[in-house]
Amino acid sequence: MKESIPLFKVYMNPTAKEEVGKVLDSGYIGQGPKVEEFESQLKSYLGHDKLATVNAGTSALHLALHLLKKPEIYTHVYHGVAAIENKWPGLREGDEVLATALTCTASNWPILANGLNIKWVDVNPKTLNMDLDDLERKLSPKTKVILAVHWGGYPCDLDRLRQIQNKCRALYGFEPAIIEDGAHSFGSKYGGKHIGNHGNITIYSLQAIKHLTAGDGGILMLPHEKLYNRAKLLRWFGIDRDSNRKDFRCEADIEEWGFKFHMNDINAVIGIENLKQVDTLIDTHKSNGKFYDEQLSNVDGVTLLERSKNSESAYWIYSMLVEDRDGFYAWMKECGIIASQVHERNDKHTCVKDYISPLPTLDKVVGKLVNIPVGWWVTGDQREYIVECIKKGW
Predict the structure, then answer these.
(1) What is the rounded CA–CA span in Å between residue 378 and residue 364?
(2) Residue 221's Cα: distance from chain center in Å?
(3) What pLDDT sits at residue 77?
């Protein structure tokens, strides 16, 4: 094939250019009516009304952790069960976040930015998500947050995570907060519901190459009203944009300082236009991913990941484990197919050297991890060609 099949590609609805032009001509390009419109559409699409947009998925994670610093008593609903009262102790210096090292650094650096400690959890070789047995073993009185990444769009076992929360409560008197990193997962579902509807704090990324892009941006979904209201305030310096002040430029009293994490109308209108096509894009990702699941299931040298009926992946990337990865890369390049590990393990970096711990399963799988093109741009002929090349061997 003459042109390489890319691993990633930016989708942009042709209508976005004209709509962005209208925003530029309006003279109002900050957080305004288009942000409100986009949020309203996202709330409807995702089925969750406590949702706030921000300028990046990383900002959403940073803000989520910051919100948790304050002690609270609140109630929330889990899987439709009656409201449960939870006394949250807040975050203090020395508290730990249990996290996976197999992810983008954007997942874990907000932990450091909030002055918290990382405790690495090994990976499940069948899913590349967190190993929940290892997670349970590593609970301690300092465990305040579990940061669960849905690798490639494949949801973690959220029911088991809830059981682990309950165990921590029985042992130490509080439930660690769960933050779901759904950066790969727009369109993924667990138990038939979109990620973000299972009683946890959840973030999505709207960065350039995600299923839904706003150019850049993020979504923060909160499990109860108190966190939601604070998130809306703290994404914009702690100023209440909804109040009826006589002079908007002169803020009322700021009770709690915040950040400049808000979305703007330029990004919002790009998101609005791309949201019109997102189901088609996601359906193509899923169709391609399921095609690979069927066609590559018995190929020598290839180990596919586990699929569960309760977890519906959006297949942002298609990950598998291969023997002789260098040989695989060379063969894919010769075939004109871009393949990559995509994310390096985070625990190798100097800035987290104080948190090094044994991760034997990650050690075994990371050198075999590859991702092949699965996105909306991959045609039927191209996916058949990709499978054909892999089946020929390398």
Answers:
(1) 30
(2) 11
(3) 57
CA distances from 338 to 11, 274, 332, 351 (A): 18, 25, 7, 30
**Residue 95 to residue 141: CA distance in whole angstroms:** 9
Beta strand segments in 174-297, E? 177-181, 189-190, 193-194, 201-205, 218-221
Share the mean pLDDT of the chain.
95
pTM for the structure as a whole: 0.95
**How buried is residue 353: exposed, middle or buried, by Cβ count under 10 Å (0-12/13-18/19+)?**
exposed
What's the pLDDT tens digit per position in 280-324?
Answer: 999 999 999 999 999 999 999 999 999 999 999 999 999 999 999
Which residues are 205's β-sheet partners?
218
Interacting residues of 64 by C-beta distance below 8 A, sequence separation 6+: 110, 179, 201, 203, 220
Give the span between the Cα atoms of 385 and 392, in whole angstroms.
11
CA angle 87, 89, 94 (to 5 degrees): 155
Kindly list the distances between the CA atom of residue 214 and the CA atoms of 171, 284, 363, 373, in Å, as whole numbers in the listed order: 43, 19, 35, 22
Q: Which of 28-32, 49-53, 81-85, 236-240 is the least confident region?
A: 81-85
Between the alpha carbon of residue 218 and those of residues 10, 58, 213, the distances in Å are 16, 8, 9
User: What burial class does residue 192 get, using C-beta atoms within 10 Å of its C-beta: 0-12 exposed, 13-18 middle, 19+ buried?
Assistant: exposed
Token pair of 96, please? Answer: 């730990």
Cα 230 to Cα 241: distance, rounded to the nearest angstrom: 12
| Domains of the chain as residue ranges with CATH | 16-275 (3.40.640.10), 278-392 (3.90.1150.10)
Residues of the chain with pLDDT > 90, as a percent, come to 91
